[in-house]
Specification:
The chain is of the alpha+beta class and 377 residues long. The chain is 29% helix and 26% strand. It is built from twelve helices and 18 strands. A seven-stranded antiparallel β-sheet has the order 16-15-14-13-12-18-17. Strands 3, 4, 7, 8, 9 and 10 form a six-stranded mixed β-sheet that branches. A three-stranded mixed β-sheet has the order 1-2-5. A hairpin with a 2-residue loop joins strand 15 and strand 16. It is globular. 53% of the residues are buried. The N terminus is likely disordered.
């Protein structure tokens, strides 16, 4: 691994000058982040693998990502909120590209006539938890240790910034072609979701985005803070449990104060890509203590509700995480396969989504279910 003083990317400007609250992420941190973000993605956010490969290449070339503690953000700082939008399964064929990921941020800078001071993830889940690091390295900016979900959610209004009723516009979008779209104004967050989803679908059900810029004050007050560190720590816990020949699933539960909901084998997967989402359900046949039961999981990009013997037992906004029962690796809705031995876990929701407005935006009824939220915690 390169020493910071010896990396080609740093020789031009000397050593990294870190501001208060900043630290350089090591490659080991990045590897752990990929593991943790995959679990916190609750089935969505896209696979982190390709973004991880891009980051390995950038690190081999001498570049480094800098993580910024949000407490040290100036109130007036301008923050780019970044993500890839669309149906995760499309990412299996349309591979991620760092140069494409930075396009909507540059478009937003031109529109604002102001450069950004830092970037952050819209959601810490899956590949979207790593994407801001790619953009940050290319742009020479720090990554804020925060996101707006504490997981992954499928729709634009399902964020802590929406719960706080902050402005939803402007928003910039780009694709792999020479298409860049900027939505200057939208009636509300739901309309922003409808408009951007239609555009995303026309772009091939995947687009890189820069959401409405946030100030440092807004991030500190309304962001879900320290989630990058949370994902890194979770990844390290899983990796250590493997190295020590312990149970990675139990390591996840211990690290996140979670609950084991069901253990079984996938026996059926029903999946379709429609209107920019990956929708469907999967059926599990119980094993071990659950051997006489069946379990069904519904998903819209992410897992939304789990039923045991047709009774809803776990639901959003609790995080429903499906992991490999042996390795503890996250399993996404696009990678569900017949015969996989999996454990269904529930992790606590960030408190912001347990408020009345939070539940209106991300509770079961927000996904079309005719029942109220009941937490397993």
């Amino acid at each position: 691994m390169f020493e910071l003083e010896d990396t080609p990317a740093l020789e031009k400007g000397g050593k990294v000058a870190l501001a208060p609250g900043q630290r350089v992420l090591t490659l080991e941190d990045i590897e752990a982040l990929a593991v943790g973000a995959w679990i916190l993605g609750t089935g969505g956010g896209g696979s982190p693998y390709l973004n991880l490969l891009n980051l390995r290449k950038l690190y081999a070339e001498g570049h480094r990502a800098i993580l910024q503690n949000p407490d040290h953000l100036p109130d007036t700082a301008s923050i780019a909120v970044l993500s890839t939008q669309g149906a995760p399964i499309v990412g299996q064929e349309r591979l991620s590209n760092p140069e494409n990921s930075i396009k909507p941020m540059r478009a937003m800078e031109r529109f604002q006539n102001r450069d950004f001071d830092a970037v952050m993830a819209l959601e810490i889940g899956g590949g979207n938890g790593l994407l801001p690091l790619l953009v940050a390295i290319l742009a020479g900016l720090p990554v804020i240790d925060a996101d707006s979900m504490g997981r992954a959610y499928p729709e634009a209004q399902m964020t802590s910034f929406s719960v706080a009723d902050l402005p939803c516009a402007p928003m910039a979008m780009a694709d792999i072609r020479d298409n860049e779209i900027l939505i200057h104004k939208a009636e509300n967050w739901k309309w922003m979701e409808r408009l951007s989803r239609t555009i995303c679908t026309e772009m091939g059900s995947t687009a890189t985005t820069c959401k409405a810029p946030r100030t440092g004050k807004e991030v500190k007050e309304f962001g879900v803070l320290y989630t990058t560190t949370k994902a890194i720590d979770l990844g390290y816990a899983v990796l250590k449990s493997r190295a020590d020949h312990l149970d990675p699933v139990q390591a996840i539960l211990n690290q996140c104060t979670g609950k084991l909901i069901f253990e079984g084998k996938i026996v059926d997967v029903e999946r379709r890509t429609t209107k920019g989402f990956l929708r469907g359900r999967t059926k599990l046949e119980g094993m071990g203590k659950d051997q006489n039961a069946d379990f069904i999981l519904d998903f819209q990009n992410e897992f939304s509700v789990g039923y045991c013997d047709l009774e809803p037992v776990v639901m959003t906004p609790d995080l429903i995480c499906v992991v490999d029962s042996v390795s503890g690796d996250g399993i996404a809705t696009e990678t569900l396969r017949y015969g996989q031995r999996v454990s269904v876990l529930a992790l606590p929701s960030p408190p912001v989504f347990l408020s009345k407005r939070g539940l209106d935006l991300v509770g079961p009824r927000a996904f079309g279910y005719d029942f109220e939220y009941r937490s397993v915690f």
